[in-house]
Design a protein that fits this description.
This protein has a single domain, classed as GMP Synthetase, Chain A, domain 3 (2-Layer Sandwich), CATH 3.30.300. The chain is built from 1 helix and 4 strands. Strands 1-2-3-4 form a 4-stranded mixed sheet, covered by helices on one side. A hairpin with a 2-residue loop joins strand 2 and strand 3. It is globular and about 40 Å long. The N and C termini lie far apart (about 45 Å).
Amino acid sequence: MTEFHWRAAEGYEDIRYEKAYVGDEPEGIAKITINRPEVRNAFRPLTVQEMSRAFNEARDDAEVGVVILTGEGPDAFCSGGDQ
């Protein structure tokens, strides 16, 4: 099985946007993690803006063929909106 490592993009607060690599070679996998486990990954306006930006980056990146969407922490993928 091939082992890869994740490289995180900078400039995000509520999410992590990462791409998988083996050495310096991209693997075609992006991962967006909602990173607000203290509120069970509830969305707020900033979360939605950052997710939209990350999905657009992945869409426009010819090296990305699949996107994984996940949530940080053991309690919840996402508990809904936190307006």
